[in-house]
Amino acid sequence: MTSLPPLDAHAHIAVDIAGSDMDALNAFVFAMTRSLEEASAGLRRSDQNAIWGIGCHPGLVTSLKHFDSGRFEQLLRETALVGELGLDASTRVDMELQKEVLSAALAVLSRHPRIVSLHSYGATDLLLEVLAAKPLRGVILHWWLGDEAATREAVKSGFYFSFNASSVRKKELLDQIPITRMLAETDHPYGDRWSAMPRMPGRVDQVEAGLGRHFGLDAMAVRRRLWRNFATLVSEIGCKPLLPQKVRSVLDSLDENAA
Question: Model-level pTM greater than 0.70?
Fold first, then answer.
């Protein structure tokens, strides 16, 4: 258990990154994509320390206009992860188009559950409305900034939350969310601008330290907790066979130590 690698639940990585550079991260990363084309390229890789997600970023109108439910469903056969999807009220992209694409993706996910990392900048209440209309398992609310009422509703709905170096400083948010629903993220290269150098995917030590201070735990206890949360999420979805073998081995070691 002392050799558990960092777990980064949301980061952006170039799909043409060298395999040696990926290995050098020494972390397990949820690698988000922003379009089906980018996802297709990521899924052709064979990284053992990353899950490549299928994304369609709400702030990118070209990605939204090229979204195809059939292709999305086909790509789902190859991965345990979808991300990032969601809604973003800060962009000029038409909100109706954003909602249309998200609803279409959620309809497919209702038939083929996966871990789903959702973006909600400026649209936390609206995202919860969409999710209420299409209930879903496996939801991770990435960089969540909802108010007290929205956060209470999200917790009640069984969602998970991924914290980065910015959001982990929000004590009022940490007070509302059980540690059993938390994951750490960098959101590299966007959400780790407050992190120490060098900034790279997998560098979640600042988040782990923040959670440790809040809950009175040492860094390794926090890391074990986050991995157990991930293991629970995987079990809820039943997506373990789609994970890289290296990651399945880590999850197996958690089971052995819990026995």
Answer: yes
